């Protein structure tokens, strides 16, 4: 698969900025790298960003889009930016933090699991995976693999990944920001479901009746 140089540059720049803000908020490279769990977080972040270059995810509005849902993108982006900065900052200050090094490693584990779960559906869906709520050309339902049980595994991955980041910094504020991310995510899931129902009708209704939106046996 050919990787766009423009996309690669943007991805690398955004990832370095992401990590740079976290390092700055934590007190600099020396402080950040003195914590092995945070070093692992940095490496995994770079690996996930690198893997994203080989997906076909896009921001295409396709053949039909729910434009009224676009507010969700800056909402999730804003909460994510606050998480990137406030989790390490509160950790450095020792404000509203909990646990010790063990908690950091729990966070690392969740960060990795969430990151993989976030990226997996992007590879599975290919060009049908859009950052917008849209029906793509040749769109069809995927109901096998992880989609046999969950309708939104990538969003679950985003939440688990965010929670992992928060716990890696032992940050109560980070956990709260992760919880707040549910608000725009639920709005987006509802919008997507309405669009898919309009496009696929009874086929989607049957699929929805036998699956979970986000978490098996919970929601």
Automatic annotation (TrEMBL):
Pfam families: PEMT. Its main location: membrane. It is a multi-pass membrane protein. The keyword Transmembrane applies. Gene3D superfamilies: 1.20.120.1630. The keyword DNA damage does not apply. One of its GO terms (cellular component) is endomembrane system. It comes from the Bacteria. InterPro entries: Metal_cation-efflux_comp, Phopholipid_MeTrfase. Keywords: Membrane, Transmembrane, Transmembrane helix. This is Putative transmembrane protein. It comes from Pseudomonas batumici. The lineage of its organism: Bacteria, Pseudomonadati, Pseudomonadota, Gammaproteobacteria, Pseudomonadales.
């Amino acid at each position: 698969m050919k990787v766009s140089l423009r996309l690669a540059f943007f991805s690398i720049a955004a990832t370095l900025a992401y990590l740079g803000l976290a390092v700055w908020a934590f007190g600099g490279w020396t402080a950040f790298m003195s914590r092995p769990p945070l070093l692992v977080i940095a490496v995994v972040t770079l690996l996930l960003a690198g893997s994203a270059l080989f997906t076909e995810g896009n921001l295409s509005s396709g053949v039909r889009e729910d434009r009224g849902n676009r507010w969700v993108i800056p909402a999730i982006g804003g909460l994510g930016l606050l998480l990137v900065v406030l989790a390490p900052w509160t950790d450095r200050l020792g404000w509203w933090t909990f646990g010790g090094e063990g908690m950091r490693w729990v966070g690392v584990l969740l960060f990795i699991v969430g990151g993989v779960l976030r990226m997996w559906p992007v590879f599975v869906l290919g060009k049908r995976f859009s950052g917008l709520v849209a029906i793509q050309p040749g769109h069809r339902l995927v109901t096998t693999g992880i989609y046999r049980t969950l309708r939104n595994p990538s969003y679950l991955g985003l939440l688990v990944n965010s929670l992992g980041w928060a716990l890696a910094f032992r940050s109560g504020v980070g956990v709260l920001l992760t919880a707040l991310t549910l608000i725009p995510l639920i709005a987006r899931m509802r919008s997507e479901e309405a669009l898919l129902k309009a496009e696929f009708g009874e086929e989607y209704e049957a699929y929805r009746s036998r699956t979970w939106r986000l978490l098996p046996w919970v929601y």
